[in-house]
Design goal:
By secondary structure, this protein is of the alpha/beta class. About 40% of the residues lie in helices and about 15% in strands. The chain has a domain of about 190 residues: TIM Barrel, CATH 3.20.20.100. Strand 7, helix 5 and strand 8 form a beta-alpha-beta unit.
Length: about 350
Amino acid sequence: MQHRRLGRSALVVSDICMGTMTFGSQVDEATALRILDQCFEQGINFYDTAEGYPVPPDPKWVGRTEEIVGKWLKTKPRDAIILATKVSGPSHVWFRSPKREGMTALDRRNIIVALEDSLTKLGTDYIDLYQTHWPDHDTPYDETMEVLDELVRAGKVRITGCSNETSWGLMKSIAASERLGTARYQTIQNNFSLNNRRFEDELAQVCRQEGVSLIPYSPIGGGVLTGKYSGGAKPEGARFSRYLAMEGRQAAMGRRFVNDKSIASTERFAAIAAEAGMSAATMAVAWSKQHDFVASTIVGVSKEEHLPDIFAAADLVLPADVMKAINKVSREIMYPMG
């Protein structure tokens, strides 16, 4: 397992991070604990959760993921774990958090209340990486960055980051931190995969120039890149099988991940992986890690048997011919996820 620094901070993490967003919904507690144990045994020291997990967002189980991670955390030396969680961004956009009756925002009160609740559920007195979950472009960045800085100074948070942020928002936050002399965002957690390379258009350059690390989520395209939705398949119990049968936000997300272009590119990527002697999932994770602006790639699994393909990417460097073949597909089927 390789290790990289988060932004310009003192934190060094494994270049694979275990994401937990389905723990407590799609994944039961016992399975989640076994998955976490296996990841730790493989040398993964970085774990990501959020106050609004598990998904899909629902008041009946919100917070359960942090409780499961907290139970597991008690079985490990706290200093051996780099723990990340998130405060819910605004609920007046397309995403509605089940926290605080849907009245979430990135103002002072919400951030402080959210952190204290997360500390309690996780059973720890500090968070290594505290992230804003969806940007709040209507709340002044000065207020957000100042309260996050207070939490860093109080020792409750080590470093801060953002998630699903835009180029404008990331630069706006950095400018505010520099002007105010506060702690800055060291990381950004956005969607990035073989089927969604939009991060490379602008945000990658911001990360390079400003010393911010991407910690990408959905490197396997929400499971699409494994091929399980190919040929019109809708596997029982799979996330997008459920989402495509729903309405509103979930249905829209399902169509974004599973569509004619994404399936066509997935099939071509699968052929490249097979010729190179690896699974499509292994290739997708290895590809994600193989970028200079990426510190650690967040993976997620719903079953223990998915783990070996993830672990196989740990020290894997894709050769030039494989990267060339991948880039050819990306040029010919541009932006499969829109």
